[in-house]
Amino acid sequence: MEKQRSLVKILLTNKEKILESNKYNKAEFGDLISELTDVESSRQGILEKIEEHGSIDIPKLKKELQLSEKNLLCNIEYLKELGFLGYIGAKPRFFKDVVETSKQNGIFPNVTIIKDSNLCSGCGLCASICPVGAISYSEEKFDFDEEKCIDCGLCYICCPRAFFPKVLKAPEENDVPDINFLEQLNYYQEICTAQTTDERITTVAQDGGIVTTLLKMAFQQKLIDGALAVTEGDEPLKPLPQLIEDEDELLHTAGTKYANAHILKIFQGCRGHDKLAVVGTPCIMEALKKISFFPFNRPFSDKIALKIGLFCMESFDYKKIGELLKNEFKSTPADVKKMDINKGRLIIYDHNGSASDVPIKKIKKYGRFGCFFCDDLTSIHADISVGSIGSDPGWSTVFIRTKRGAEFFQKALDLNMIVKKEIKEDSKSFESLSRIAKSKLKKFEEYDRPKMIEQDPDIRKNNFEEVPKGLTVDMVKLETQRCLQCGNPLCVTGCPVNIRIPQFIKLLKQEKYIGALYEMKSYNLLPAICGRVCPQESQCEKYCLLSGLGEPIAIGYMERFIADWERKNNLKECPECAAPKGIKVAVIGSGPAGLACAGELAMNGYDVTIFEAFHAGGGVLTYGIPEFRLPKEIVKSEIETLKMLNVKVEYNIIIGKTLTIEDLKEMGFKAFFIGVGAGLPMFIKVPGLTLNGVLTANEFLTRSNLMKAFKFPDYDTPIKIGKIVTIIGGGNVALDSARTALRLGAEKVIIVYRRSEAEMPARREEYHHALEEGVVFQFLTNPVSFIGDENDDLKQMGVIKMELGEPDESGRRRPIPIENSEYIIDTDTIIIGIGSRANPIITRSIPELKISKWGYIETDENCQTNIEEIFAGGDIVTGSATVISAMGAGKRAAHGIDKYLQEKYLDKK
Ligand code: FAD
Asked: Fewest C-beta in 10 Å: which of 52, 115, 565, 624?
């Protein structure tokens, strides 16, 4: 096997840069290199042997390489994670895309994952290990200096969010004699509540002051000669990791352990110490363990004399602590002497000795996001774990886990530096400890994301019934367990209407379905629709932290579940409306933008009328998206909910023709929302466009969906479909047309798309459905002519092969025709589904309205146009987009309208 690019080589190449950044002196650098050289050759050796055997044969490898099983297993997991063992079917377990995104084909990954600030938990370990200072950690985020980065991958290795080998999770062999074990509390010999007897410590340290007292005792007794702990920096409330070298320093800095700052200043910096204590939260303990193995192959440094774990439930970054103090305590960092968490409340003590507190529940919004990867409240890797849960104010709860931990604790007791009271396993304290620890246990690795029950492809391609059938109650129960309930849920930021997804999932988990429904509908009045057609994969689910580890939570499926549960139980939950304001607002268009705007305004007490050009409401939901993806009964039912909010709907009225905005003003409407979509079909410039058998997707789908041509002759709209139907385009419109054509009896359906599969804008789920049903895809192919017979009936299509060039303004790679690659496809129906544009009917009737050169209405961020009483949103502003983005715009516009009407009419009353 070819030698992999080594970390040693990278570090040596960048020696000057590394020494310049002052993290290592020459001697330290030399030590580091020699240690790493040994590790690399052993790792390379394992890789070569595996290749030689063609399999992972642990006993054989152990014998041949003379390595311990643990060492082997750790290295094998690591090699798997980097994608080196893919050829024998071993897949990475954590960040599935590290293999694809890693620029560097070497024994160490590059830093792509670390650069994803959405995944950062803010421990700062990456900043501390980076040998060139390319990562700086300030306030709540890190900054990454691309110029300085040498792509060594050390930061990835120490990140607690990156892969953590299961082998390392096990407690160390000699550490745990005579242990008790409870899943939620891990291993322990004894649990007690304890307090320092040192008055000085009481005034500065948290809870019972146990961490500081143990360290003080250990310094005094020379059991340690250094401690890595979080201590106060130059400014108040800005804790930093520091190597504390004596008792005085320790006492000066005690009491600042509430923040989850990085404790590992520089791994190498501890070299001058033989007996170190480390203090940290579970993630820091884990990272420390991992980092000591990768890249050093030395499972937890033998120089560590004591590991004190801190309970970790809620964590705050520095910026958020500032917000918290200002908003909840009306104080500043400089006022604070110490902070405690006790009995579900956060208590702040100031320098005058006064204390004020707030319930933890109330301060959750200041918590940092998603620090739930360890599943561990109490630090399984610690000798002793210390926290406040389970103890009275002024006391700490202590878990003694290991023999070493027991010795340290006993010594402090013998020296009368601490006093303790036992916590019995049948006590209330024990019960609350286990309950809280259990709530942190996540099960995301234990269950797979549920697969939706679906109609069989061979059957469904002949009917218009809905393809997916939804999730069962049991499936939902399991899926809710996977949710991490992140403190700062990124899924919510990915949702254009900002549904409080974790709260919704929590209510589902508790089987409080009415509550879940109400929670959902407070943000989204159309959950049955969004649960079916929203591209969750590029919105909420894309941002789910679990998507970095495997499969994101099935948020869309659960949204659909709750809406279907409501219908099945003949319920109609709708949010409460404010008192009527007596002001009329006209909403033009009943697509998702119009419906969302109308709902929001009605809830706010406005008298809302929707004007719709067609005889049915829903916009594209009704005339565009086919029955087998979105049953029209569901659209109708969701519009009914709006009627419960007193929204009136007037059908068959084209604003700009039947009535104008001026007419509506005369009818008493004070503000207007234009949500007329972008329904004008686009054509391509090829000869033969007027042949019989050439249709636009708009016409085809409208006939089938709105006019119910698929039920002909029960409905009197016929639709002609040929034997070989070719669709042009790669979006949802093209796929819907293809699958409709199949169901209407076409023998063969081909989709011709000028870009490649990767660039196709259609939803992935729908693409797979289309493939399963037998739709044929011809990628990188573009039409050049439509060819007819003597009767002008379409017979064939001339096409040309394409290749991809540089990305265009949409960010997708531009398709370029390949010279002399034309060929002919037999086809008797062509459906053009390449998109649509703004319909000018309404904009022409309001000449002063500002529009773009493409005919889309221009608005500000509140959806207000240049005419103050007219607002607009949805596809008529953005061009063809998505249901949920149209809804988001509708909601924003409703807020804009409310503000406008308040200022103009209501504040004056
Ligand atoms: P529309 O839904 O177009 O609604 C506009 C409404 O205004 C229509 O009812 C129209 O009749 C009415 N109207 C127009 N002019 C006037 C007038 N002058 N007077 C009165 N009424 C008027 N998005 C997804 O998120 N997921 C999908 O799976 C998906 N699939 C799609 C499939 C197809 C076939 C199509 C065409 C689009 C699809 N989309 C999908 C896109 C999505 O449906 C649109 O982005 C969304 O419907 C836009 O909402 P809107 O309210 O702005 O406009």
From this structure: 52
What is the C-alpha to C-alpha distance for residues 550 and 93, in angstroms, rounded to an integer?
8
> In this structure, are strands 304-310 and 794-807 parallel, antiparallel, or unpaired?
unpaired
Give the residue ranges of DSSP H helices in 441-538.
Answer: 457-460, 473-482, 490-493, 501-509, 513-521, 527-533
Pocket perturbation via mutation, ligand 1, pick of 610, 696, 701, 732 by most ligand atoms within 8 A of CB: 732
Token duo for residue 903? 């200022």
Eight-class DSSP state of 461: T
Ligand 1 close to Cβ of residue 890 (< 6 A) = no
Least Cα distance to 68 among 297, 303, 286 occurs for 297
Q: Provide the angle, in degrees to the nearest 10, between the axes of the packed helices 555-568 and 473-482.
A: 150
pLDDT band at 270 (very low <50, low <70, confident <90, very high): low
Cα 880 to ligand 1 centroid, rounded to whole Å = 8
Residue 816 CA, chain-centre distance (Å), reads 35
What separation in Å is there between the alpha carbon of 409 and the centre of ligand 1? 68
Q: Is 682 in the pocket of ligand 1 (CB under 6 A)?
A: no
Please state, for a pLDDT cut of 90, what percent of the chain lies above it: 53
Identity of residue 405: G
* pLDDT of residue 128 exceeding 70: yes
CA-CA distance, 74 to 71, in Å (whole number)? 5
Atom of ligand 1 nearest to the CA of 883: 25
Ligand 1 proximity of 833 Cβ (cutoff 6 Å): no
Measured CA to CA, the distance from residue 695 to residue 727 in angstroms comes to 10
Residue 707 near residue 715 (C-beta atoms within 8 A): yes
Atom of ligand 1 nearest to the CA of 874: 52
The pLDDT of residue 140 is: 53
Q: What is the pTM of this model?
A: 0.74
Kindly report, residue by residue over 312-345, the tens digit of the pLDDT. 876 666 677 788 889 998 888 888 877 777 777 8
CA distance 451 to 434: 33
Ligand 1 within 6 A of CB of 4: no
